[in-house]
Amino acid sequence: MATVAPARLAEVFVEVADTLVDDFDVIEFLEMITTRTSELVSVPAVGLLLDDGRGRLQFMAASDEETRLLELFQIQHNEGPCLDAFTLGTQVVNADLAHAESRWPTFAPRATASGFRSVHALPLRLRSTVIGALNLFGTDAGSLEPGDVKIVQALADVATIGLLQEKAIRNGEMLTEQLQHALNSRVVIEQAKGALARTHGIGVDAAFELLRTYARNHNRKLVDLARVVVTDPHTLPGLMR
Fold first, then answer.
1. What is the per-residue pLDDT across 3-18, written as a single tens digit (0 to 9) for each?
2. In whole angstroms, what is the distance from residue 197 CA to residue 174 CA?
3. Does residue 137 sit in the same domain as residue 221?
4. Are residues 160 and 192 in the same domain?
5. Which domain holds residue 209?
6. Is the pLDDT of residue 233 over 50?
7. Any alpha helices (H) in the chain, and if so which ranges?
8. Same structural domain for residues 124 and 204?
């Protein structure tokens, strides 16, 4: 893996900290975590799953559509590195998918068929509280160096802190309401991506980038814009044609 320049690492953590303001956009925050993770340790695909408050993982963010589908596959089959990292609260690092069928008999062949050769999963945790997992997929058998693992775990830990309030941390409780809101927001965003993809005749990855760019350029929350795309698209002629 490429060595991360200290200045770039500092920039990313400043960006993350700057995002953690009152009423921050959870989906945008988690999407940023996956994007920056991919950039910092040169891993082509990253996904993030969260506990829905009932001990079940739900998809929240991914660097691209193929990764989203693979994360959903893990959830549907209750098998894979993210499930292990979440359930055990421990890291899964440098797993070779070509030799992982005994560990993940359903997931490993599916991931390999998608072009991935290695996988890593790190828990989103704060002390004994685990609220999800961050998944990294590599297209070759390269490994994450110990320093890279520390960087990714630090990002995962920061994401966890961003999703937990001080009182909830003290009491060891999940902020179920906030996480449920985030899960509901994800559904709306997926619907908006589909609507944009159909309208413009583009792929869902391009549709999401179109949605995110429009939200940023017009200073709107991603989920609020997505809701308008789904419920009242005629009010967005510049986006929906």
1. 566 777 788 877 777 7
2. 35
3. no
4. no
5. 183-235
6. yes
7. 6-19, 26-41, 65-77, 81-88, 107-113, 146-163, 166-171, 176-200, 204-217, 222-231, 237-240
8. no
The distance between the two most distant Cα atoms of the chain, rounded to a whole number of Å, is: 53
Closest CA to 116 of 98, 104, 103: 98
Q: Retrieve residue 178's tokens.
A: 């906030």
Q: Please say whether the beta carbons of 108 and 131 come within 8 A.
A: no
Secondary structure in 3-state letters for 104-170: CCCHHHHHHHCCCCEEEEEEEEECCEEEEEEEEEECCCCCCCHHHHHHHHHHHHHHHHHHCCHHHHH
Distances (CA, A) of 17 to 10, 13, 139, 159: 11, 6, 30, 10
Q: What is the pLDDT of residue 175?
A: 54
C-alpha to C-alpha distance for 232 and 220, rounded to whole angstroms: 15
Q: How many domains does the chain have?
A: 2
The 8-class DSSP code of residue 94 comes to E
Hey, how many other C-beta atoms are within 10 angstroms of the C-beta on 66?
17
Q: Which of 134, 165, 196 is the last residue of a domain?
A: 165
> What's the average model confidence in pLDDT over 214-219?
90
Amino acid of residue 139 = T
pLDDT in tens, 46-88: 999 999 878 899 999 998 889 999 999 999 999 999 999 999 9
Judged against a pLDDT cut of 90, whether residue 22 lies above it is answered with no
Flag whether pLDDT at 1 surpasses 50.
no
Within a domain: 175: no
Instruction: Residue 162: name the closest of 45, 66, 1, 18 by CA.
Output: 18
- SS3 state at 47: strand
